[in-house]
Design a protein that fits this description.
Layout lengths: L2 H4 L7 H22 L2 H7 L6 E5 L4 E5 L6 E6 L7 H7 L8 E4 L6 E8 L6 H12 L7 E11 L4 E10 H13 L4 E5 L25 H68 L3 H11 L4 E9 L2 E8 L5 H6 L4 E12 L6 E9 L7
Parallel strand pairs: 1-4, 4-8
Antiparallel strand pairs: 1-2, 2-3, 5-7, 6-7, 9-10, 10-12, 11-12
Helix pairs in contact: 2-3
Length: 367
């Protein structure tokens, strides 16, 4: 099946494959030439030195090149055939010229064939065996070529397009071009598919298609340099972007560390301020002991003193336990003075056990 039909490469002869690769290289050169300025682009545009002989009834048109670069060399008739050799030599600038013979459309017989899928591996041989049944000609009377147009392997059948021409119409021209030094290696027609060639491989000129010559190497070198020139800025941009992203990541990490340290410092500062504030509002133990020493009368012993926050509780024995409440209430820092448990007599003594609680606020502090 042809590439245009289903993206599957057909079986090509060595000559047809060489033509396709050469055409691909020329197309690449044209595309690359459009990207280069001025004379650089003009110098890279491929100049096809090969010849095309366009046949008509009784005459021919000799051209050089193909497509937009084609130019006419001569309009041949019976009188100018003798000068064909000199004409070809004067316009040939390659040691291995490629000559294409283009036939009129009405010289071509084409038809669609349906063959069993088992014939796919030997299609040319099968068509050769069946040519007398498929056409009104014998195999030795025609040149033919074919291409797969539809893959019907699922139903056991393949479809192909067959094109052929009579040998007697072109053999005289093949001999003339061979004698002129530009043997024909391809026979086509205006509606031919890209890889079409009616000339069989065994009749093609025996020469190598030099695709890896100096010109091709230079083309590949220019294409490689152009690719590097186009890819260089993109690579540099990606490297710069990667560097900036790395720097941004480092800056984000540093900013996060600074923010974490700032939060830790703020927390520590708030804790120290809270401690200082609490310390400034709480009475010191030495002040409390001084007040108790002044207020408690002789004959009083404090056995246990608990001081938590602003609440103070004292336990002990005194010969004047009943008067302690009044004495402690006279002290300005003390408030809420009261017995926390009943007073009890110490056996065999004149002392009484007491348990007194009150609030202590240092003078000048906040409540």
């Amino acid at each position: 099946m042809s590439f245009a039909a289903s993206f599957r490469f057909p079986r090509l002869s060595k000559t047809a494959a060489g033509y396709q690769l050469a055409d691909l290289v020329r197309r690449w050169r044209r595309v690359l030439a459009t990207c280069l300025p001025g004379r650089m682009g003009d110098a890279l545009i491929p100049r096809d030195p090969h010849l095309t002989l366009i046949l008509a009834h009784g005459q021919a048109l000799l051209c050089q090149g193909e497509g937009e670069t084609r130019r006419t060399l001569a309009d041949l008739d019976a009188a100018s055939f003798q000068a064909l050799g000199a004409l070809v030599a004067g316009h040939r600038d390659t040691t291995e010229p490629r000559t294409r013979l283009e036939l009129p459309s009405d010289w071509i017989v084409s038809r669609t064939l349906y063959l069993p899928s088992q014939a796919r591996k030997n299609l040319r041989q099968v068509i050769g065996y069946e040519i007398d049944r498929l056409t009104p000609f014998q195999l030795d009377q025609v040149y033919f070529d074919f291409r797969l147009t539809e893959d019907q392997g699922k139903v056991g059948r393949i479809t192909l397009e067959l094109a052929l021409c009579r040998r007697d119409l072109v053999q005289d021209w093949l001999g003339r071009m061979r004698e002129a030094g530009a043997p024909v290696d391809r026979i086509v027609w205006p509606q031919a598919w890209p890889s079409a060639n009616l000339l069989p491989d065994e009749e093609s000129p025996r020469r190598l298609v030099r695709l890896l010559g100096l010109e091709i190497l230079l083309i590949l070198l220019v294409m490689g340099l152009a690719a590097i020139a186009l890819a260089g800025p993109l690579w540099q941009r990606s490297q710069i972007l990667a560097g900036l992203e790395g720097e941004l990541t480092d800056l984000k990490r540093s900013a996060a560390e600074v923010e974490s340290l700032r939060a830790a410092i703020e927390t520590a500062h708030q804790g120290s301020v809270a401690v200082l504030e609490r310390k400034s509002t709480q009475a010191t133990m030495i002040d409390l002991l001084r007040e108790l020493t002044v207020r408690l009368p002789d004959g009083t012993w404090v056995e246990n003193l608990e001081f938590q926050g602003q609440e103070v509780q004292i336990r002990g024995e005194s010969t004047q336990a009943a008067t302690l409440i009044g004495l402690l209430e006279q002290a300005a820092p003390f408030s809420g003075v009261a017995f926390r448990s009943p007073v009890s007599q110490v056996p065999n003594t004149d002392r009484e056990r007491f348990h007194i609680g009150f609030n202590y606020q240092r003078q000048g502090g906040d409540s």
